[in-house]
Amino acid sequence: MDSQKGNWGKILFLVVIAAFLLIFPALFTLPFPQHIMIMIFLYATLAQSWNIIGGYAGQISLGHAVYFGAGAYTSTLLLMKWGVSPWLGMLAGAGLAVGLSQIIGYPCFRLAGHYFAIATIAIGEITQIGMVNWKGGGGAVGLYLPILEESFANFEFHTTKVPYYYIALGITAITFFVTYLIERSWLGFYFRAIKGDLDAARSLGINIPKYKSIALAISAFFTAVCGTFYAQYVLFIDPESVLPLMLSILICLVAILGGVATVWGPFLGALVLVPLSEFTRTYLGGGGKAIDLMIYGALIVLIARFQAEGFMGWIKKLR
Amino acid sequence: MFTSEIILQTLLSGVLMGCVYALVAVGLCLIWGLMEIVNFAHGQFMMLAMFLAFWMYTLFGVDPLLSLPMGAVLLFLLGIATYFFIIKGILYTTFLAQIFATFGLGVFLHSMAQFLWTGNYRLVQNPLLAGRISAGGIFIGFPQLVAAIMSAIGFALLYWFINKTEIGLALQAASEDREAASLMGINSNRIFALGWGIGSACVGVAGVLLANFFYVFPEVGFTFALIAYVAVALGGFGSIPGSFIAGILIGLVEAFGGLLIDPAFKYLSVYVLYLAVVFIRPQGLWGRY
Amino acid sequence: MAILQVKNLTKRFGGLVACDNVSIDLEEGEIVGLIGPNGAGKTTLFNCVAGFYPFDSGQVIFEGQDITLLPADRICHLGIARTFQVVKTFKDMTVLENLMVGGFVRSLSTRKVYREALEILDFTGLAEKKNMRGSALTMADKKRLEMARSLMTQPRLLMLDEAMAGLNQKETQEALEVIRRLHEKKITLLLVEHVMEVIMPISHRVVVLDYGKKIAEDVPEKIIDNEEVIKAYLGEKYHAARRKN
Fold it and tell me: Sheet containing C80-82: which strands, arranged edge to edge?
């Protein structure tokens, strides 16, 4: 009986949140709060994507920016060189990212813990160095997306951020829903078993490389989608903005802060970190860039030290 | 095109720089071997040591050579403090928490340095160790040579300490089996703190030595940190001599990578080396696991 | 036909021969005990049969199929399940979730696996603890959980590695009861044990290993008096002294 009430309560809560998010642009009509929400959606989706391989399956990838960059560069280059629609470019980018993830995963998944993490860092750095030196892809200077007529088909809007808002909301909703489905399905159980104990997982019939690869593929797919969105939103990409180690770290941080291996954790993490970062940047002036990183650093240490389960851990305790 | 002189020159500068990398790596390896925690703030510790040498010189006129003992001692204390305030509490938690505890510290120290001292590149202008030696057309920077020699001495001392003294053997015992070691009266907290202290002191020495000839700036920590992890993983986590040799190897690969391909790619070759080794031999060259 | 045939299995670790030319046949529905002093190679044999270790020579045939080269997860699909000497609970998952992991090898439907898990929870007496976290269980319950979890894979051969170690009297009796119920379900059982009071009453046959070699194989009553077995456990001197008397 209790759980039925609990379920209705949860559904009501979800409906309220969904309604709020849907009418947000009407309530907050200025571009700045809309931009903040878009960034929250972006980081939440990135963190959730990472969550699938890092949180649920326990494979700590510190080079996820590779997939973000793959999405951003693929759709942008296809658009610039052959006029391919960004929406198709998004799919192509996601496809490339999935392919990359399998190539990366095959040798890397044999590596244990620290070796794996450092390998992902190395691959990330190699990719960034590579893109800096590849003139065909814009090199260090980067790529300016062509300014096209504002339209949904062109995936560009210049007079208002509202369509971007809804697209971001849509991507976030889809990613979160997929994660929810995974968590409830055999995939979620298998991922968590892999994280829990490899030998036990094998003894229960789990093909470990196969499921690690599946987790990474799903993760790479959604990360790349975010990359294309970013490119179309900012209309400029370069290795510094879409491939740096710091981005990979931030993605993990948001997921950990919010709570790994939970559906809502990544959203909570983004909800806290994005405004925090904007606040420090805006109100603490020039030195602000360093201060917000100092706060990140301290936060990471505190979370790791005192609440490894992140915000969701606190929420669970309150229940 | 590549004369034997150029090759020899590259070889030598690679080895010299590699010795310094090696010392940094050895400190990291000690900590890892002891409690399986990778100190992701290791590079920032070194950066702090470099800034220490710089400010001692700029503000008080103390030559980096004289700052050496101070750097070692202060970093030793920093390592111990880090253990007691942060590491002790995460020893038994998840792998993710451990990575992020030290990584967060690293991010914090890096941005703190940026906030306090800005991102400008600084240089110790006229250290005691300066100038070049030339032998047969080959130029060796004097501070680089001294840094390499002192790193090698530091490694030798550390190796002797680990293998020939009681405390060193206690360190090894605690790293192999914490419980058994405590049954033999080895206080694991003290041992671990000592490990952190010594590992950090290594990096403090390396940092002060580097300040004689290398630019001092907040980002320097990241680069050396990555190289250190790669060295430790390459040598094989848990093998101190392995880390040292791997450090030198990396110095060579970096130097020749810069020579043969492009200076922009010198770090690229290091990362590729790491992947190559670890894909073929997952436990590194001399690794335990 | 024998459900499991281990033929001349040899496993070396460097210079050490952990399993030396071991051959065992298990008939369907049997309960076979595998005993021997520490280091005799019992767990190594398990790991080789279950596909966790590759071995140097020999063959393993399960239900007529050669499974020698198959990996551990394939072997589970085929119907062999095993538990571990040191329990490997999924610490961050509940008891129910632990079990469900095992069920998905037979069906991908969460609903179906959920129902089956509830049944197995009842069967093994863990129903009340189904929402407890794995890390919160007692050792005895963790062992029971491990057994229940492996049952979810619907094995026809279940290999238990020291399932009774560290249990008190009451817990041992409860575990024995579960084993009897498994036997009633016609599951073939291979038990590694140190606790003689457990092995002797329930095993149809007992196989004894020492230094990697099979030194005896017989019904329990005869094993107790077997000279080689006594020598292995208690040493030459005791055997000699006993013979003198």
Answer: C80-82, C157-161, C188-192, C31-35, C205-210, C213-218
Give the start-to-end residue ranges of the domains of chain B.
18-113+139-218
CB atoms within 10 A of CB B62: 14
Cβ atoms within 10 Å of B78's Cβ, excluding its own = 21
User: Which amino acid makes up residue A172?
Assistant: T
**Per the CB < 8 Å rule, is B106 touching A297?**
yes
C90 CB neighbour count, 10 Å cutoff: 26
Is residue A286's pLDDT more than 60?
A: no
Among chain A residues, the shortest Cα distance to B112 is held by A294
Looking at residue A1, its pLDDT comes to 44
- Please report all neighbours of A, defined by 3+ CB atom pairs within 8 A: B, C
Instruction: Please give the tally of structural domains in chain A.
Output: 1
Structure tokens at B241: 């001599």
Q: In which element (H, E) is residue C160 found?
A: strand C157-161
Residues 117-146 of A with CB under 8 A from B: 117-119, 121-123, 125-126, 129-130, 132-133
Highest mean pLDDT among A138-142, A200-204, B106-110: A200-204
Q: For residue B86, what is the nearest residue in chain A, using CA coordinates?
A: A305
Of A195, A204, A261, the CB nearest to C76: A204
Averaged pLDDT, C138-166:
92
**A65 vs B226: which has the higher pLDDT:** A65
Assess if residue A73 is contained within a domain.
yes
pLDDT at position B218 over 60: yes
Least confident of A52-66, C125-139, C219-233: C219-233
Chain C contact set for A185 (CB, 8 A): 108, 110
Interface probe, candidates A50, A62, A66, A126, chain B, greatest B C-beta count within 10 A: A126
Q: Within chain A, where are the H helices?
A: 2-27, 31-50, 65-82, 86-108, 113-133, 162-184, 186-196, 198-203, 208-234, 239-242, 245-258, 265-283, 288-306, 310-318
Domains of chain C (ranges plus CATH)? 2-244 (3.40.50.300)
Interface test with B, best of A301, A306, A307 (most B CBs within 10 A): A301
User: Could A304 and B106 be called an inter-chain contact, meaning their C-beta atoms sit closer than 8 Å?
Assistant: no
Residue numbers in B near A123 (CB within 8 A):
271, 275
Task: Give residue-wise pLDDT tens across range A136-191.
Answer: 888 889 999 999 988 888 899 988 899 999 999 999 999 999 999 999 999 999 99
Residue of B nearest to A196 (CA): B94
In a domain, A265, yes or no: no
Strand partners, C62: C4, C65
- The structure tokens 């001392």 sit at B157
Task: Examine the pLDDT at C99 and tell me if it is beyond 80.
Answer: yes
- What pLDDT shows up at residue A246? 84
Confidence of residue A5 (pLDDT cuts 50, 70, 90): low
The CA distance from A137 to the nearest CA of chain C, in Å, is: 44
Nearest CA in chain A to C87: A200
Query: Inter-axis angle of helices B42-60 and B188-211, to 10 degrees?
Result: 50
Task: Grade residue B135 by pLDDT with cuts at 50, 70 and 90.
Answer: confident
- Model pLDDT for residues B53-82, shown as the tens digit of each residue: 999 999 988 888 888 999 999 999 999 999
Angle at which helices B42-60 and B4-35 cross, to 10° = 110
